[in-house]
Write a structure and sequence with these properties.
mainly alpha, 8 helices, globular
């Protein structure tokens, strides 16, 4: 049973790294303004597209939102994810779809190395990974 979860987790991380993201040329390199307007919404949608439409991703995102209700907004989750990237949210917004997937995976791996993890529905997730799943869940709900 543990082995099955290990394989499933590996597949989820691979989906995050290698998933197909269809970024539009207009939204692909959108610059972020100071407001939580359309460009941040565009970045949130791009982050969500980095993940497969796997129901497990949505379930883990919903589980994280349930655990940490104060983070249940797209804007807040983007800010928390951006804090982990050297150039912040604006830097993430300028990345290509492939580079964004790699950046999100790298952020999650750094969380694991710092033992910044959270338990969601029996899964040990990097905090940033859980935030990415929550962000995808919220974006897809809207």
């Amino acid at each position: 049973m543990k082995r099955r979860y290990s394989l499933r987790r590996r597949l989820l991380l691979q989906a995050m790294l290698l998933g197909v993201a269809a970024a539009s040329s207009a939204g692909g390199f959108a610059l972020v303004t100071g407001a939580f307007g359309g460009t941040r919404r565009g970045l949130a949608e791009r982050v969500a597209r980095c993940l497969d439409q796997d129901p497990q991703v949505s379930a883990l995102g919903a589980g994280y939102v349930g655990l940490v209700g104060r983070e249940a907004s797209v804007a807040h989750l983007l800010e928390r994810i951006g804090e982990r990237w050297p150039s912040g949210v604006p830097g993430l917004a300028r990345l290509s779809a492939r580079s964004l997937r790699l950046a999100l995976a790298g952020i999650a791996l750094r969380d694991f190395s710092r033992a910044d993890v959270v338990l969601v529905d029996g899964w040990v997730l990097a905090r940033s990974e859980a935030r990415v799943y929550a962000l995808a869940h919220l974006v897809r709900r809207i």
